[in-house]
Amino acid sequence: QVQLVESGGGSVQPGGSLTLSCAASGTIFIIYTMGWYRQAPGKQRELVAAIQSGGSTNYADSVKGRFTISRDNAKTTVHLQMHSLKPEDSAVYYCNFYVRNASGRQGYWGQGTQVTVSS
C-alpha cells in the first residue's frame, strides 16, 4: 500500500505564504504524476498544480505566477509553495499521486490539510 502524508497547512493573512509538503511511503515502482488539489466548502475538488514524471508542470489559471510545485531528488515528496495568498485560496488541500505499484496503476490521496487565508 501507498500512504501519503501531508504537512504545512495553517492560517495566514492575505498576501502571505505557505508551503505544503506531501511524502509518500510504501512500495512504488513508478510515479507518473504528483499533484495538489483543493476543495472549498460547497465547491468541487479542483486541480491546483501537477508535476509529471518528466518534470513538466501545469497549474490552474487562478494560481499561475503565485504557486510553485516541486519535488525532492528522490521524487517521493512533492511540495507546493504558495505566495501572495488570497482569501479565495482557502480550502482543504489534498495531494494525489498516480503510480504503478504491485497492484498496477493506482491513484492515492493524502488526508488533506486546511489552508485558511483571512485577515
Short summary:
The chain is mostly beta strands and 119 residues long.
Question: What Rg, in angstroms, do the CA atoms define?
Answer: 14 Å
How many helices? The count is: 0
Q: Which structural class should the secondary elements be placed in?
A: mainly beta
How would you describe the shape?
globular
Strand content: over 45%
The arrangement of helices and strands along the chain is EEEEEEEEEEE
Q: Runs with pLDDT <50, length 5+?
A: none
- How much helicity do the residues have? under 10%
Largest sheet: 7 strands, mixed
Amino-to-carboxy terminus distance? 40 Å
Oligomer: single chain
Q: What is the residue-mean pLDDT, rounded to a whole number? A: 96
Tally the beta strands.
Answer: 11
Describe the structure.
With 119 residues, this protein is mainly beta. Helices cover 0% and strands 58% of the residues. The chain has no helices and eleven strands. The termini are far apart. The model has no long low-confidence stretch (mean pLDDT 96).
